Amino acid sequence: MSRILIVEDEQHLAEGLRFNLEAEGYQVQVLDNGEAALDTLTKGESAFDVVVLDVMLPGKDGFAVISELRQAGQFIPTLMLTARGHPDDVLRGFAAGADDYLTKPFELTILIARIRGLLRRREWLRASLGNGTVAPEPKEAFRFGDKAVHFDLLELHVRDQVFPLTLMEANVLRYLIQHEGKPVSRKAMLEEVWGLHEDTDTRAIDNFIVRLRRYIEDDPTHPRHLRTVRGVGYRFVSSPPA
Question: What is the per-residue pLDDT for 123?
Fold first, then answer.
């Protein structure tokens, strides 16, 4: 039985989600503040499969919670709930490490579908890793130089190092790889990767590129794979000239 942690301070909403998710067969725990969520998730005493995390929380807000979780090496799939749904809020959540988001008010069926999607990826990871055995070769791997990005595993392998990727980091990298050698605008990435069509501060994309460069580039200040195209956006090069 999959376990879901709901972090929501609106009691009627939290209890409604608990009731409906338990009716779907999930085991659900509810917390009403960010500090309690961090304490529960980082101690590791109770394993959860998905977190549903509200942005507006008393004390530490959802952005701070997800950011601290990722910094602590906790990559549990996380769906963020935001009341305003402003594109900048959505991008801020993704930049902090969220895997998906929903804007309030939302349809219950959509929430359940999003949770199922996150659970399917988590189950694939468990199955691929097995019980202490060597994981099979991922089906979605892209190799360039001494690096390999495994989209199925949400991992970037750089020589003997493995960097876990959030779903959105992987999606950004996948989009750039799919358009290898071509300049990709920030606006195109906002629309194609996140589905945001409103006027948005496209510089938010830069946060993802900075992080990916730290993983990929030997010298992030002089990138060779993730290159800046002045006045446009970025270009991915798998085999840069020596």
Answer: 67
Fill in the amino acid letter for 232. V
Q: Which helix (H) or strand (E) holds 168?
A: helix 167-178
What whole-number distance in Å separates Cα of residue 100 and Cα of residue 36?
Answer: 21
User: Of 54, 50, 7, which Cα lies nearest the Cα of 32?
Assistant: 7
Percent of the chain that is helix, strand, coil (3-state, to 5):
40, 20, 40
Sheet holding 141-144, edge to edge: 141-144, 147-150, 155-158, 161-164
Tens digits of residue pLDDT in 117-157: 888 766 655 554 444 434 444 456 899 989 999 987 788 99
Q: Confirm whether 231 is domain-assigned.
A: yes
pTM of the entire predicted model: 0.71
Alpha carbon distance 96, 227 (integer Å): 23
- The helix (H) or strand (E) run that includes residue 158 is strand 155-158
The answer to whether residues 161 and 125 belong to one domain is: no
Domain residues for the domain of 180 are: 141-236
Residues 90 and 163 in one domain: no
Give the CA distances from residue 187 to residues 98, 205, 207, in Å, rounded to whole numbers and listed in that order.
20, 9, 14
